[in-house]
């Protein structure tokens, strides 16, 4: 049970469309092969399989890079586009939301278009969106292009993994998917490191331009080595359910992102977004319960482990990307660290995640509840340690806590996938996998938005509280050794006081977000106790 359910679940998303390829060792180019050729993946040579695996690993690394590459440049984007902290966070959150909404469509699109054509279209659109991100002149433009980037990149990773599993015989699934996972892990390591140097040397726009060579290599690999055997089929999609769910997610995310700025439900806009989200969710639920073939089948929730797994993956998503979204602004705004250093700091998380995956690769027979609990515990320790930061925090403080958080993510992902699908009827696996990844991405976007709102709100509150003590009647300002340059009787002195109070209040805001992060992990840990162990 601990060795292959996750890979099987990923494969099942894309139905029975089989891959066939050709290699470059003197055979005909693959684009000249007959669409109806009777080709069996079992007859592939090791060289052919290696070419496929390298291509799909590159495709996976391409998308994995974009998940974290924008984070290191967020402070530069904020200054260049004259955006506030909550506005610039849209660059991350709406990209995640677009990925979440588009992921369940991957299976349907693959059936309609074929895997090869879908991957080519997705990579090309992804490259165009990345190029346009670099040319954006406003936050709204950048967010729009990031939405396209997230939606076009959504099918790449699950589809690539499905093709890898189809290409290799069952006894080689472990080694093939392990190598394939290297692409997933290398992306978050390479992207922030390289992106930090490029942002510092040129500008934030180049973090998007640097993606283009990877898209070209990926596109050439797909053109050369991947093609479908069967013609596309006409499969019906429940458009009512899909549109209702997409509207509900988008409206709710917009409400969270703009809530703090508009004073929440004192704003007509926020009320309208909440109403639209609620109505759309109601339509989705009612339609799912009454339709013959709904977009996502609610009968899956009767499986205990699957239902609990969905709750856990929602929290997993909340814990996944929040620290690396918040830390770049903290390090540059309050400590003045350059982008290259921030990139190295963020790459520590990727290294921790890679180590976690390597540990799980050799510990596959352990009860998955144990590493899952350990992963949550590491999130708690990392969050608590970040909560203890002060205004004079060092790079070492951030690196080891970020590494620990990444290690927890690596330890949690495989057992979480195994637990969630260990008892689910295989008939429901495709829909179940779509909902699984949907909730993971929604959790990430929700928690990032709430954390940013918490930083902004508590910064404002603490600034107001501390400025109340800045008066001529405060005797501390009458002691030269204590007051220093803080002089309430001069403009320069008041400016210095205001700047320091702003720094301290902002730091308190960040610390509150880290406390929120740790509390989220603590609240989720009891869910592991509800998991029912499957008998051998």
Sheet with the most strands: spatial strand order: 1-2
- Overall mean confidence score, pLDDT: 79
Query: How many strand segments?
Result: 2
Q: Strand-and-helix sequence, N→C?
A: HEHHHHHHHHHHHEHHHHHHHHHH
How many domains comprise the coordinates?
3
Task: Please report the distance between the alpha carbons of the first and last residues.
Answer: 8 Å
Mind sketching the topology for me?
Blueprint: H1 5-12, E1 19-20, H2 46-69, H3 74-80, H4 85-88, H5 90-102, H6 106-113, H7 115-135, H8 139-153, H9 156-167, H10 173-201, H11 206-209, H12 212-225, E2 227-228, H13 239-259, H14 268-290, H15 304-320, H16 322-334, H17 339-362, H18 369-387, H19 395-421, H20 429-467, H21 480-483, H22 491-524
Antiparallel strand pairs: 1-2
């Amino acid at each position: 049970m601990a060795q292959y359910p996750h890979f099987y679940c990923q494969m099942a998303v894309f139905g029975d469309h089989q891959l066939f390829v050709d290699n470059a060792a003197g055979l005909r180019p693959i684009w000249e092969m007959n669409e109806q050729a009777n080709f069996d993946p079992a007859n592939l040579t090791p060289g052919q399989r290696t070419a496929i695996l390298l291509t799909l690993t590159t495709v996976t690394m391409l998308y994995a890079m974009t998940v974290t590459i924008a984070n290191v440049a967020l402070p530069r984007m904020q200054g260049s586009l004259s955006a506030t902290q909550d506005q610039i966070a849209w660059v991350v959150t709406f990209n995640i939301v677009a990925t979440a909404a588009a992921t369940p469509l991957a299976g349907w699109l693959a059936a309609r278009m074929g895997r090869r054509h879908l991957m080519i279209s997705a990579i090309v659109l992804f490259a165009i969106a990345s190029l346009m991100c670099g040319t954006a002149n406003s936050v709204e433009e950048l967010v729009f292009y990031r939405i396209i980037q997230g939606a076009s990149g959504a099918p790449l990773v699950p589809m690539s993994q499905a093709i890898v599993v189809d290409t290799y015989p069952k006894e080689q699934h472990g080694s093939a998917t392990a190598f394939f996972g290297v692409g997933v892990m290398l992306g978050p390591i390479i992207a922030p490191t390289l992106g930090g140097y490029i942002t510092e040397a040129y500008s934030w726009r180049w973090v998007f331009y640097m993606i283009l060579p990877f898209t070209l290599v990926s596109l050439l690999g797909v053109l050369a080595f991947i093609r479908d055997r069967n013609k596309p089929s006409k499969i019906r999609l429940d458009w009512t359910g899909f549109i209702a769910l997409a509207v509900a997610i988008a409206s709710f995310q917009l409400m969270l992102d703009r809530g703090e700025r508009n004073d929440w439900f004192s704003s007509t806009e926020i009320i309208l977004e909440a109403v639209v989200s609620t109505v759309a969710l109601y339509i989705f639920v009612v339609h799912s319960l009454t339709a013959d073939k709904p977009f996502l089948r609610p009968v899956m929730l009767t499986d205990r482990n699957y239902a609990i797994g969905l709750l856990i993956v929602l929290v997993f998503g909340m814990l996944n990307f929040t620290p690396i979204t918040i830390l770049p602004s903290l390090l540059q705004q309050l400590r003045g660290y350059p982008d290259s250093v921030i990139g190295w700091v963020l790459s520590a998380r990727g290294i921790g995640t890679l180590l976690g995956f390597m540990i799980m690769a050799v510990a596959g027979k352990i009860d998955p509840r144990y590493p899952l609990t350990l992963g949550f515990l590491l999130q708690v320790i990392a969050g608590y340690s970040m909560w203890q930061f002060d205004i004079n925090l060092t790079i070492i403080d951030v690196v080891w806590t970020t590494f620990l958080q990444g290690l927890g993510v690596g330890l949690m992902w495989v057992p979480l996938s195994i637990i969630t699908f260990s008892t689910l009827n295989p008939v429901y696996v495709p829909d179940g996998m779509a909902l699984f990844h949907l909730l993971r991405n929604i959790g990430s976007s929700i928690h990032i938005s709430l954390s940013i709102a918490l930083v902004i709100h508590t910064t404002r509150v603490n600034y107001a509280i501390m400025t109340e003590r800045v008066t001529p009647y405060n005797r501390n300002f009458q002691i030269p050794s204590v007051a220093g340059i803080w002089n309430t009787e001069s403009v320069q002195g008041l400016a210095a006081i205001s700047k320091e109070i702003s720094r301290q209040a902002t730091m308190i805001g960040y610390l509150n977000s880290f406390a929120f992060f740790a509390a989220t992990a603590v609240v989720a840990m009891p869910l592991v106790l509800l998991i029912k162990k499957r008998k051998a």
